[in-house]
Task: structure prediction
Amino acid sequence: MRVKNWLWAGLGVTLAALSAYGQEAASKTLGYEKDVKPALESAVCVVSREFQGRQFFMPTKEGCTPAASLSPVQTKMSGAMAEVLANYLVHCSRLFGEAQKNVPEGPGRLEKLQKEYRRLLLSDETIVGAVMPKAWADMSGAGLACPDCPGPKQAPAPRQVALKDLMPYTLAFLWPARLMPDGGVSFMICVGVNGLSRMEHPDPVLAEAAFSCVNKNGDAMEMAEAALTEAMKPDAYKAFKGDEAKLDYLRASLAKSLPANAAFVAEINKQALEKLPAYGLACLDCAAAPEAAQKTP
Result:
């Protein structure tokens, strides 16, 4: 009888240990749909605004889900998603435009639009490739695993690019957009109005990196505006008939003059050294670029 009691007691201890192990293992496992996806989506919000009597929708930097509703690791993943959205403004602008086309006018459009925008973001190869290594790092740091999570667990080795590969994308964002009634030119750096649509199979990562190099860059803008002013002086410009023909001439002039401007190339060189690593890129020749530009006739 004592032997039987000892066996039952031992079996009870074993079952309890197995149960505890199972609970511990379960507590260290996250599900993509249940845990990770909601954390990433919490950084993606769409709001409704009104301007001059017209309603429009726009993504916002503010997350939709209160931070208190997220666990510590989910909060980190939400922050990682917010960082990717901030780094990929051009790509996200295109995806948001696609979401607006997919969701027709009607009641509840704001909620439907937000849902569709989130779906497009989290099914996009560029966005998933950028955010998931960060999410995996957050989970790993907390001792967590996610068996059904998509995307790469680690960021790939930096892709090496030359400054000459970046330059066409830089020029695509220093874009003469339209002629003004007073004869001036509307010149802008914009995620939506730019020269990317004229490029054949543009690289979305290079585009984002180039945008980051010129966005809010007063020095680059000042040099581009000076080059634009010079391009508008020749008789060749004045001889063109029609706005689009004149704009094409100005765009071609900038594409020729700015890469030959040592100061402009040096500025893009400086920005590339700082900005490219955030996009998984490494500049092959950035250090030598200003000297090379000075030798350009």
